[in-house]
Amino acid sequence: MYNVKIFGAGSIGNHLAHACRRRGWQVSICDLDPAALERTKSEIYPARYGAWDEEIRLASPAELAGDDFDLVIIGTPPDTHMSLACEVLRQRPPRVLLIEKPVCTPALEEAETVLRLQEETGTFVAVGYNHTLTRHSRRAAELLAGGLLGKTLTITAAFREYWGGIFSAHPWLAGPRDSYLGFASRGGGAGGEHSHAVNIWQFFAQLTGTGRITEVSAMLDLVADGQVDYDRLFLLNVKTETGLVGAVVQDVVTEPPQKTARLQGESGFLEWLVNYDAGHDALRYAGSDGEIIEELFAKTRPDDFAGEIDHLGEILRDGPPDFSPIALCHGLDTMLVVAAAHLSHRRQRTVRINYDAGYGLQALEPV
Ligand SMILES: NC(=O)c1ccc[n+]([C@@H]2O[C@H](COP(=O)([O-])OP(=O)(O)OC[C@H]3O[C@@H](n4cnc5c(N)ncnc54)[C@H](O)[C@@H]3O)[C@@H](O)[C@H]2O)c1
Question: Range of 268's domain?
């Protein structure tokens, strides 16, 4: 049984607490806001999972500061992630640290420090891009490894979702201005909140050997009215180090939502579909024989996090794997692209990413 501490008694804190409890792990949740702890016990957890779980400890961060944990989860707003990660790694490094997505803001603050602390402490640091570890993503990886596509010609990915659903999961927020969501510079807006699309694009680029994104050309639709300042549409054309060209779309206006990726190869295609219907994720694909196959993967909302937590459980048991799709470097690669997109929009220029320059704004060069 593992001992888990979660920072943040909000929406994701409850999801991940539940996922850990399903595996019989011991869970403590801390939050700076006593009202959030109370809401977890009386509203969020019972409404989602049927009843409050008396085994979960609720506390202030100070009350847990002297305890050691196997797994620490940072489920707070994005603009707090990096400073909390530094604090955790400096004071009581756990064996595994999961930082929720987006790992940081588009300013990429303290990215190099967290990387250095990861090396010094030996903690495995992950970023919560849970969609890379769902059952249909694992199956997609198998199909691609089996050569389904032949040479990959292009990849597109879209996470387009009106964020009314987020606000109905947070009835205590009146709208985007009440949280980081209404501020791109704090990790909100479509670019930060739906960065799952950039991340899954990169995941598939890696699986197909088409390399890292080195050029970004973006157009954003910004909302800035004195109360909020965010991108509601985040449209990217991208190119990789091997010359593959593709596109990423993220928005907070599309209803009903669309969460998809599509890979086109010389001899086949693969479509990856989240929430294909109310109870399933899906894959649609064809190889060189042209026969279109549809595979459905039954799931509920808690299953969105099951693969991720199982993966962390395996790391706690066996140590870090050779490849983890949620390793810190992949989460930082995603934020480099998000930061490049903001710069590209502002400058009306393509932005090149120089990975040799490290994780920071110095890696971005308008061309
Ligand atoms: N992977 C996913 O599918 C997914 C789903 C939801 C949210 N998220 C991510 O999780 C993060 C949090 O989102 P949320 O919707 O749960 O937010 P939320 O506002 O519901 O909860 C965040 C909580 O963190 C608390 N907090 C802030 N600073 C703290 C600190 N220093 N110590 C302890 N508690 C602190 C706040 O009081 C608040 O209760 C965001 O980065 C979001 O993008 C990911």
Answer: 131-300+326-366
